[in-house]
């Protein structure tokens, strides 16, 4: 899988860069999935494909995105809300994931009045001092816009911090819920991906569920 927003980073492996394997590792792959394909230009996708083909011409290339479905309002018992809850709101995106830009871009597409952000390092665990800092940032946004902002987190961060996120009261905390979807491009689709995967794995039951 390749992150379309920063496909090769600084061409350095972890911990000096974002890459988990060198580009030469593509030589032993059968399939490449370019993720966040909806957030980059066609030219950027063409450039990624060109680089991939230089390493292994026969690779099957697919394209994916995260499709937002709804929000969860963080309470003792979470409440489901439609994506329209973000419209004309002031939002503060808080995340500790590998690709915060993709998260913020997704939120910006939902029609908010203003989006601000706080990015922590991937897998970071929120602490009491972080909750205080987030509340100060949210209060500054309220003073600036005259509207109480909502704080938006990813499902990944919610799963790690369900208890501590309750301490962000009186600010609402929205969890953006989404699913991986394939982007049809150049004859490639979710259906063709599943069929190819069945073929490569030698699975007899073609009702493969992904």
Automatic annotation (TrEMBL):
Residue ranges that the Swiss-Prot or TrEMBL entry lists as coiled coil: none
Enzyme class: transferase
Enzyme Commission number(s) from the entry: 2.7.1.130
Keywords: ATP-binding, Kinase, Lipid A biosynthesis, Lipid biosynthesis, Lipid metabolism, Nucleotide-binding, Transferase
Gene Ontology molecular function: any one: lipid-A 4'-kinase activity
PANTHER family cross-referenced by the UniProt entry: TETRAACYLDISACCHARIDE 4'-KINASE (PTHR42724), TETRAACYLDISACCHARIDE 4'-KINASE, MITOCHONDRIAL-RELATED (PTHR42724:SF1)
Protein name per Swiss-Prot or TrEMBL: tetraacyldisaccharide 4'-kinase
Species in which this protein is naturally found: Nepenthes gracilis (Slender pitcher plant)
């Amino acid at each position: 899988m390749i992150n379309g927003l920063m496909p090769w980073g600084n061409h350095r492996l972890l911990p000096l860069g974002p890459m988990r394997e060198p580009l030469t590792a593509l030589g032993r792959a059968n399939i490449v999935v370019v993720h966040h394909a909806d957030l980059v230009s066609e030219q950027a996708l063409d450039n990624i494909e060109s680089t991939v083909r230089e390493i292994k011409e026969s690779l099957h290339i697919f394209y994916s995105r995260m499709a937002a479905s709804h929000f969860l309002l963080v309470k003792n018992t979470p409440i489901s809300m439609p994506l329209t809850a973000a419209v004309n709101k002031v939002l503060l995106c808080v995340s500790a994931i590998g690709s915060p830009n993709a998260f913020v871009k997704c939120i910006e597409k939902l029609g908010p009045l203003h989006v601000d952000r706080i990015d922590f390092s991937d897998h970071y665990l929120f602490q009491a001092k972080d909750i205080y800092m987030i509340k100060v940032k949210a209060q500054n946004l309220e003073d600036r816009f005259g509207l109480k902002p909502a704080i938006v987190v990813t499902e990944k961060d919610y799963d790690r911090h369900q208890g501590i996120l309750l301490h962000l009261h009186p600010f609402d905390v929205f969890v953006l819920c989404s699913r991986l979807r394939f982007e049809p491009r150049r004859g490639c689709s979710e259906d063709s991906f599943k069929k190819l995967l069945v073929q490569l794995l030698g699975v007899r039951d073609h009702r493969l569920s992904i």
